[in-house]
Amino acid sequence: xxxxxxxxxxxxxxxxxxxxxxxxxxxxxxxxxxxxxxxxxxxxxxxxxxxxxxxxxxxxxxxxxxxxxxxxxxxxxxxxxxxxxxxxxxxxxxxxxxxxxxxxxxxxxxxxxxxxxxxxxxxxxxxxxxxxxxxxxxxxxxxxxxxxxxxxxxxxxxxxxxxxxxxxxxxxxxxxxxxxxxxxxxxxxxxxxxxxxxxxxxxxxxxxxxxxxxxxxxxxxxxxxxxxxxxxxxxxxxxxxxxxxxxxxxxxxxxxxxxxxxxxxxxxxxxxxxxxxxxxxxxxxxxxxxxxxxxxxxxxxxxxxxxxxxxxxxxxxxxxxxxxxxxxxxxxxxxxxxxxxxxxxxxxxxx
Length: 351
Ligand SMILES: Nc1nc2c(ncn2[C@@H]2O[C@H](COP(=O)(O)OP(=O)(O)O)[C@@H](O)[C@H]2O)c(=O)[nH]1
Ligand SMILES: [Mg+2]
Ligand SMILES: [Zn+2]
Hints:
- This protein is 34% helix and 21% strand.
- It has helices spanning 3-6, 11-18, 53-57, 126-137, 156-162, 180-188, 206-214, 226-229, 265-271, 275-278, 295-301, 307-350; strands at residues 26-33, 38-42, 45-51, 70-77, 80-86, 93-96, 104-108, 113-119, 142-148, 172-174, 195-199, 240-242, 248-251.
- It has 3 domains: 3-86, CATH 2.40.50.140; 93-251, Rossmann fold, CATH 3.40.50; 265-347, Ribonucleotide Reductase Protein R1, domain 1 (Orthogonal Bundle).
- It binds guanosine-5'-diphosphate, magnesium ion and zinc ion.
């Protein structure tokens, strides 16, 4: 098997490259994203690349490459290159850019599975799992729940009860660094050419898990706090590793919160197992807040739907609506601005 095929390169991507103006240049996959520099793995090795002026100034920052993207680049020096084009993104993991209400940021692309990593201590939080499932559903990424540090002891019954409404939609793995079998099981679930992104808060054991999966200490581990981690030399910072006879793993720095950046509330009802009830509400456009004859509210009262799940539904739906409304507003503003510019330009051209 060809080197880049192990990274997921395939016929479909090849065809897309043929449609680029730069089809005769080299292609590769972004393995690390620095501030202005991208590490790219290609047929002939690794290149440290920058963006062309066109890519830098001609588009929104959210369109800049992210880890996992397939790009076309020109080599300019040994081990150096310039990225000319990016193939259209697929299966992208987005988050709401921190400090904004409607800007999304691509974390990783061409993702097949997202490992939602939580440790079985106070970090475990079912609401965060639901939120993450909503975020991946729209992009066709399979979420997988990985519960770590089983060796520290946990209340299995409590955990299982908390995730009953999710467990038939998301595979669940229990791991411990002290149980090699638990790591083997996880490794067996990853196929050749498949891309897996690891997400979860700092300290849950993502890097430890990746090191154990590839049997090499590639990633720095230990609960390095954000403030003390800053001064460290991170010249060899890694994000992506290729597993032998298996897939591609992408580590992400501990993201505290995945802000919702989609508005597919049908997905949300399905994830939270309330879509069957929704169909039974008296009014077709029932919002399940305080309407008469609302089957969802009735089910909550009869304790068929967990109250926590219902509240999570309302909260995530509100976030989704808010995101769509502000994103739409932003698009409208941009549209009217570009209209003004067009009118201005046509007048100018006529002179
Ligand atoms: N007891 C126990 N500790 C673990 C396990 N996995 C990781 N840790 C510890 O948790 C801390 C954070 O691990 P790390 O992999 O750096 O977490 P990350 O921030 O998610 O990458 C480290 O001190 C690890 O040794 C586990 O399965 N059991
Ligand atoms: Mg880490
Ligand atoms: Zn209703």
